[in-house]
């Protein structure tokens, strides 16, 4: 089997026609000897920020000297990034060997596993074979019915910021989405919840009570920004002064607070994580495609926000870093996302009045304070919304110039030209574009 053949096999099985549930991943892992039962986990769910949070937790545990696995989705540059140990993605050779083993195991199953189930099983086998001390396991979709939820009670269950995404699968209300995410809370769990959501919190608290678990909410009142620029952020939280992260975006400080509370739990579970390791791990963490500076002149930010709440957070961060505005937005989205909601957030400048929709005229006025122009592109995905349709959608919520580019390459060139030497570019809307955007704009 070659690397290409391994990926072809992994991607060959889809969800279509498959029943929802954990029966297939349960059977597959049982046939493999249940490698997941020999591992210790931090399980990370949420709508926004779970990748960044998972990466920071993993970075801290690596700095503390633990052999640390990290399971993420999706990848940015290559498939191997989905499973890493101490920051290094799985090698092609080991991916091939594990895929050959799993293909043989899965061939005996009457109900064959899906793509994500295969990837999840691959990760479990990889982390076990390489003797990981701790695995930071990011949920793929939702929580309760996600394949990663096959694990027993983790060392910590982390639920990041919640918002509206994947509503077809998770439900149309915040209560339904919160219940799906809370599905990772098992008996006697130690839970850290991002909070900042009055509708979701009672749902999380109810699940915590039902399972005899404990809940920690970060004390954001003790969070203080000390210094912020395009090279990183210095902040203080609780008893910790002058912490540093390279990750940009004002929301990353909230994610960092979640990480600190998770590390406190891990210490209570027997992991020796010094204050020095906490500081070093936070400072060293890198996460591509999340408010990432890829060029300095003109400043170019690449961000994979792909739901209204994520766009709002990105836009609010842009206002902090670029208070004079003048940003050229290069935007591409997938057709199955809430494109209309995303564009309203973008045009409104990331602000809402008491949670209510602004009048169109007020939305446009606020958006114009930040944006110089919009250029739309078609992301490299079969699920993409075409650039022309997205441009029409944007024109309905902004008076700024909107241009549909014929290709991603043309859009990048147009954005850099429009920004000139005095402006800035923010390319956003889909993680599927990040790899190409970093290559074309970096």
List the helices and strands and how they pair.
Elements: H1 3-11, H2 23-31, E1 41-45, H3 50-63, E2 68-71, E3 83-85, E4 88-89, H4 92-106, H5 115-129, E5 134-138, E6 156-159, H6 167-170, H7 174-181, E7 190-193, H8 200-210, E8 214-216, E9 223-229, E10 232-237, E11 240-245, H9 251-268, H10 275-284, E12 292-295, E13 300-303, H11 308-321, E14 327-331, H12 339-347, H13 360-370, E15 371-376, H14 387-395, E16 402-404, H15 408-419, E17 424-428, H16 434-441
Parallel strand pairs: 1-5, 1-6, 2-5, 6-7, 7-8, 13-17, 14-15, 14-17, 15-16
Antiparallel strand pairs: 2-3, 3-4, 9-10, 10-11, 12-13
What does this structure look like?
The structure is a single chain. The protein is of the alpha/beta class. The chain folds into two domains: 3-284, Mur-like, catalytic domain (UDP-N-acetylmuramoyl-L-alanine:D-glutamate ligase, 3-Layer(aba) Sandwich); 292-441, Protein-Tyrosine Phosphatase, Chain A (Alpha-Beta Complex). The chain has 16 helices and 17 strands. An eight-stranded mixed beta sheet has the order 4-3-2-5-1-6-7-8, with helices on both faces.
CATH architecture of the largest domain: 3-Layer(aba) Sandwich
Spans where pLDDT lies below 50 across 5 or more residues: 352-367
The figure for the number of domains is 2
Gyration radius, rounded: 22 Å
What percent of the residues sit in helical stretches (DSSP H or I)? Answer: 25-40%
> How much is the average pLDDT?
91
CATH superfamily of the largest domain: Mur-like, catalytic domain
CATH fold category name of the largest domain: UDP-N-acetylmuramoyl-L-alanine:D-glutamate ligase
Strand content: 15-25%
